[in-house]
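Lab notebook, bench 4. The sequencing result for the construct came back, and we need a structural model before the next group meeting so we can plan mutations. Quick request posted to the team channel:

Model the 3D structure of this chain.
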Amino acid sequence: MFLLRYSLALCLLLPAGPILADTIAGRVSDISDGATLTVTDKAGVRHKVRLAAIDVPDLRQPYGKESKQHLSDLVSGKEVRVEWRKQDRYGRIVGKLTLQTPPCAACPKTLDAGLAQLEAGLAWWDREARREQTLSDQGYYEYAEFDAKTRRIGLWQDAAPMPPWEWRKKNQVVARLRPAAEFVMDR
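Done. Here's the predicted structure in token form:
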């Protein structure tokens, strides 16, 4: 009897099948930074998209503009496909963006924009998001970051590049302290 109740409870807690991703197909119409862009679908609906499993330098941070430019060169105006499962706290779709390899117009969309940012040394692999990736994508992303570090390309040219999450935290503290410092200086 216990086993029957346990099995029933387990069935109710587990999803009935695999969690499927939604897909957006459209053209990239705007680039905000090295990991955020806008995709306009065929109906003209604009979708703000954040590339999954990477974090890039802030635009005011070293290599921030280079990261944005690299993504822009890669995807601006191109037809893309975004597979996604969630939105972030800002309402952006968080997903894997793929497009056709540049010289091959007839090829399927297999070039992963997030992976390309890592390979160029212009992003960090977000290990916290690895549970949302396939095992093969985890391997590709981890290796791409390792390879860029080893070859010292992009932001890895610096001896100790500051990760964007640390940079944002540091600058939030500075921004909070600034009004107090200005008040003291006005006296």
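The longest strand covers residues 22-31.
Will bring this to the meeting.
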